[in-house]
Amino acid sequence: MLQNRVNPSGEIIRTPYRGTWLGNRGVLHNGKQEIVRFYKIKAWITCALVFRGRHRKVMQPNRWTELFFFDEATAFSAGHRPCFQCRYEDHQRFKTYWLKGNPEYGFDLKTPVAEIDNILHQERMNTHKTKVTYQEKFTDLPDGTFVIIQDQPYLLKNSQLHLWTPAGYNKGILLPDLHQVKVLTPKSIVNMFRAGYVPQMGISITTTIK
């Protein structure tokens, strides 16, 4: 079992459950298919599993490491964004809504996406390579956002919280009586959700976990 699934905190874990999206952070593995670094490049992208009939053998020597996500909301929480090549329309939608949700940076459609990657990199990890979080009011958070409750990742959707697991989401629970909560999803991504980008969330296609 390879270590190649990514959880909402951006950690690369081992699990028998497969993902629905492909991810890339550069070459992270060695010749024994072991993860030896957390990332290699700042452009963390989310790709389609199928693109123009191309096939890849997972974790080839000196080739970028194939990572996998349960759904797009998980990928965004980890700090990834849509690929320009295999997800061109999603990438353009991402950039449009990211700019709309984050006008304080003064970027426009001509701004290289690398500038956005630099901001995402600051928002997803600190100098100790641990996940950056921040505090926010529950009532101000849009659907698709991940939060931490009792050290567990929950997805917010339709005013309910759904516990994330490698196999899917638990049945939703009502929002707890908390004024503020720790947010996992990068702040500029949350702003993008507020602006109108709706991420793919795997709740409707998963079996409820007891």
List keywords for this structure.
seven-stranded antiparallel sheet, four-stranded mixed sheet, globular, disordered C terminus, 4 helices, alpha+beta, single chain, about 210 residues
Describe the structure.
It is a single chain. It is globular, with a radius of gyration of 17 Å. Strands 7, 8, 9, 10, 11, 12 and 13 form a seven-stranded antiparallel sheet that branches. A four-stranded mixed sheet has the order 5-3-4-6. A two-stranded antiparallel ribbon has the order 1-2. Residues 205-210 have low confidence and may be disordered. It contains four helices and 13 strands. α2 (88-101) packs across α4 (187-195). The two termini are 25 Å apart. The protein has 210 residues and is an alpha+beta fold. A hairpin with a 2-residue loop joins β8 (146-149) and β9 (152-157).
SSE order and pairing:
Blueprint: E1 3-6, E2 12-14, E3 21-24, E4 45-47, E5 67-69, H1 72-78, E6 81-82, H2 88-101, H3 113-124, E7 134-137, E8 146-149, E9 152-157, E10 160-165, E11 168-169, E12 173-174, E13 180-183, H4 187-195
Parallel strand pairs: 4-6
Antiparallel strand pairs: 1-2, 3-4, 3-5, 7-13, 8-9, 8-13, 9-10, 10-11, 10-12
